[in-house]
TrEMBL record:
The lineage of its organism: Bacteria, Pseudomonadati, Pseudomonadota, Gammaproteobacteria, Alteromonadales. The chain crosses the membrane at residues 7-27, 61-88, 100-121, 154-172. Keywords: Membrane, Transmembrane, Transmembrane helix. This is Signal peptide-containing protein. It comes from Pseudoalteromonas rubra.
């Protein structure tokens, strides 16, 4: 029965993680839109083929964010979900997976911000010419465009490092759980 419940948890987490990742993408791209509208109007809207976004660019940026990230949530959930099966009960599986997804989100967010900070450190009026291949035609503020490019590239790296961090979190959680159970079993034997 527990195996069936765990399988149910696994599939529920797939759906939930896709929704959460989509929301993350919406918020991420609202932040990056604030730094460079042109990253979307001159690049992302064309890349995603959404001409209506020019009429409502903030909404368009949100849509791009959701499209760019929902699938990453599923990939992350597929991997973390398999690690979730090592927990004894469905309740422990839900609790541990939820916390591991939070780890992924925090790591991805911090990595994206680190990318933006690196962009601010690396890119200015004097150095922007080194990134000319990144800049799309018609961009009037290439410095901000490239800085946001740093943020977006770092965010994908953040998804991967977040996934690895989530796996580490799950393994450590399982080891702690096993240690606590062993200590409890030993105390119970001693007192009996």
């Amino acid at each position: 029965m527990r195996k069936i419940q765990k399988i149910g948890v696994y599939f529920q987490m797939l759906i939930l993680s896709a929704v959460v990742a989509g929301i993350y993408g919406v918020l991420h791209d609202q932040i990056s839109y604030t730094f460079s509208e042109e990253y979307f109007t001159q690049f992302k809207f064309k890349q995603f083929g959404i001409p209506w976004a020019y009429e409502a660019p903030r909404l368009g940026a949100a849509y791009v964010g959701a499209l760019a990230t929902w699938w990453m949530g599923i990939l992350v959930s597929i991997v973390l979900g398999f690690f979730g099966f090592m927990f004894h009960s469905p309740r422990q599986m839900v609790r541990s997976l939820s916390k591991s997804f939070l780890v992924v989100i925090v790591v991805a967010l911090l990595t994206g911000f680190a990318g933006l900070a690196l962009g601010y450190y690396q890119v200015n009026e004097q150095t922007v010419s080194q990134y000319i291949q990144w800049i799309r035609p018609g961009v009037s503020d290439p410095v901000q465009f490239v800085r946001v490019g740093f943020m977006h590239n770092a965010s994908y790296l953040g998804g991967l490092t977040g996934l690895l961090s989530g796996i580490v979190y799950l393994v450590i959680s399982k080891l702690r759980y096993n240690k606590l159970n062993l200590q409890y079993a030993q105390k119970t034997r001693v007192s009996a």
